Amino acid sequence: KMAGGMAEMKPPAELADMAKASAGTWRCKGQALDMKTQKMGDMTGTMTMKLDVDNWWMHGSFASKMGKDSFHFESFTTVDPSTKKLKRVMVETGGGWSSGESAGMKDNKVDWDLTTHSPMGDAMFRDHQDMTDLAKTGVKMWGEFSMDKGKAWTKVYEMTCKK
């Protein structure tokens, strides 16, 4: 313990465990919503994951292409030691940013509830990650957003990523 009885601050052990499973470069293929046509189109991308900011955050960098259009985001994920919930902040192409949380891994799946802010307005966003068959098929991911406080949801991407 430090002076004054406070516990010493050190990065969450859960993050080190997360890094063992996810650090590295992932190649992704799938489909994403084309904002111009409002139709799903083929997309490829690369996700790199690493511990960052003195091991307090898992840093994800994603770069993708859909036709001639590119999309990038940077995400930072940590663990709230008091609730054990995962917390995430993201910034992305187009000036959007999001923040939210997840209860963490359950049955090899992680679900996120995020609030997103962009030039289109504020929205709810749900991200889903399925690592049930990681060695064979990779990580399956999909996301959806709602502009009407959760009444209607629109899928914006679906992809599979492998190391």
Q: How is this fold's topology laid out?
A:
Elements: H1 13-22, E1 24-34, E2 39-52, E3 57-66, E4 69-79, E5 86-92, E6 97-102, E7 109-118, E8 121-130, H2 134-137, E9 139-146, E10 154-162
Report on the architecture of this protein.
By secondary structure, this protein is mostly beta strands. Helix content is 9%, strand content 59%. It contains 2 helices and 10 strands, in the order H-E-E-E-E-E-E-E-E-H-E-E. The protein has a 10-stranded antiparallel barrel. The model has no long low-confidence stretch (mean pLDDT 92).
Q: How do the strands of the widest beta sheet line up side by side?
A: 1-2-3-4-5-6-7-8-9-10
Q: Topology as H/E string?
A: HEEEEEEEEHEE
Sheet with the most strands?
Answer: 10 strands, antiparallel, barrel
Q: Find the structural class using helix and strand composition.
A: mainly beta
* Helix proportion: under 10%
Q: What overall form do the CA principal axes indicate?
A: globular
Strand percentage, roughly? over 45%
Continuous helix count: 2
Mean model confidence by pLDDT: 92
Distance between the termini: 40 Å
- Evaluate the radius of gyration: 17 Å
Structure summary, number of beta strands? 10
